[in-house]
Amino acid sequence: MTDVSRRDAIFSTPLDQVADFSFDERVVDCFPDMIRRSVPGYAQITSMAGVIAARYLSPGAHVLDLGCSLGASTLSICQRLAPEAFTLQAIDLSQPMVEKARALLAQQASEHRIEVLQGDIRNCPLARADMIMVNFTLQFLDPSERDQVIQRLYDALTPGGVLLLSEKILGEPGQESLLIDLHHDFKRANGYSDLEISQKRTALEEVMIPDRLSTHHERLARMGFTRHDTWFQYLNFASMLAFK
Ligand SMILES: C[S@@+](CC[C@H](N)C(=O)[O-])C[C@H]1O[C@@H](n2cnc3c(N)ncnc32)[C@H](O)[C@@H]1O
Ligand SMILES: O=C(O)C(=O)C[C@]1(C(=O)O)C=C[C@@H](O)C=C1
């Protein structure tokens, strides 16, 4: 995304009380910088979205980008597929995110048939889709709601349709602290201070509870996906492909 984003300094000064993390205007303003410096493999995963779409979609396909934020995954598909090849709906819960995504995609993918909608993936209407992307979004739902959402996505997919699911993950037993420590080193290497890392961790504690990769695969199997593979992992961030 070529948007010049403000540098993320949200947690850089000591806060009396750290509020729960939310995708409000302040986060939207610095989001590209925040996610690039926080999520190992973010650029690789989003750029592969277009490559994956080019492999699996046929002309006339419909795509859903759920929890689209500023539309990085959507834009990746627009860079790989011609405007007449597909239609796409990008959906996000955060109104400021939706407004900025609309403006950016109107600038950067004006020829493509994209609709950006505000909605909650737990209950918004989902059109029949040949590809669904849920990148770093399921992790923000209560763990008890995740089965039902993956079931909705399975139901919305056409036979043979593909789900691209990317998540922060909890390491398997015995591996948890290694991945967390290295992720904090990754953030430090990208210019975040110990204060920023620790205050953001507190802000995310109640609102982002990662599952193990094995839990994701068990859920995908339980909801009926015939094939599901991890195609990417970088520290405690992973991306899966699942086929109906
Ligand atoms: C880490 S960001 C996703 C990044 C994005 N997919 C990308 O690749 O750039 C998580 C997004 O999920 C959205 N979100 C959280 N809960 C949601 C829900 N229940 N329904 C729809 N969107 C949700 C947030 O507003 C936020 O924009
Ligand atoms: O796990 C963390 O510490 C993160 O900062 C991760 C994460 C994410 O995975 O979405 C959390 C919130 C922001 O959207 C950017 C990155």
Automatic annotation (TrEMBL):
<protein>
    <recommendedName>
        <fullName>Carboxy-S-adenosyl-L-methionine synthase</fullName>
        <ecNumber>2.1.3.-</ecNumber>
    </recommendedName>
</protein>
<dbReference type="InterPro" id="IPR029063">
    <property type="entry name" value="SAM-dependent_MTases_sf"/>
</dbReference>
<dbReference type="InterPro" id="IPR041698">
    <property type="entry name" value="Methyltransf_25"/>
</dbReference>
<feature type="binding site">
    <location>
        <position position="42"/>
    </location>
    <ligand>
        <name>S-adenosyl-L-methionine</name>
    </ligand>
</feature>
<dbReference type="InterPro" id="IPR005271">
    <property type="entry name" value="CmoA"/>
</dbReference>
<feature type="binding site">
    <location>
        <position position="201"/>
    </location>
    <ligand>
        <name>S-adenosyl-L-methionine</name>
    </ligand>
</feature>
<feature type="binding site">
    <location>
        <begin position="120"/>
        <end position="121"/>
    </location>
    <ligand>
        <name>S-adenosyl-L-methionine</name>
    </ligand>
</feature>
<dbReference type="GO" id="GO:0016743">
    <property type="term" value="F:carboxyl- or carbamoyltransferase activity"/>
</dbReference>
<keyword id="KW-0949">S-adenosyl-L-methionine</keyword>
<comment type="subunit">
    <text>Homodimer.</text>
</comment>
<comment type="function">
    <text>Catalyzes the conversion of S-adenosyl-L-methionine (SAM) to carboxy-S-adenosyl-L-methionine (Cx-SAM).</text>
</comment>
<feature type="binding site">
    <location>
        <begin position="67"/>
        <end position="69"/>
    </location>
    <ligand>
        <name>S-adenosyl-L-methionine</name>
    </ligand>
</feature>
<dbReference type="GO" id="GO:1904047">
    <property type="term" value="F:S-adenosyl-L-methionine binding"/>
</dbReference>
<keyword id="KW-0808">Transferase</keyword>
<feature type="domain" description="Methyltransferase">
    <location>
        <begin position="63"/>
        <end position="161"/>
    </location>
</feature>
<feature type="binding site">
    <location>
        <position position="135"/>
    </location>
    <ligand>
        <name>S-adenosyl-L-methionine</name>
    </ligand>
</feature>
<dbReference type="GO" id="GO:0002098">
    <property type="term" value="P:tRNA wobble uridine modification"/>
</dbReference>
<dbReference type="Pfam" id="PF13649">
    <property type="entry name" value="Methyltransf_25"/>
</dbReference>
<comment type="similarity">
    <text>Belongs to the class I-like SAM-binding methyltransferase superfamily. Cx-SAM synthase family.</text>
</comment>
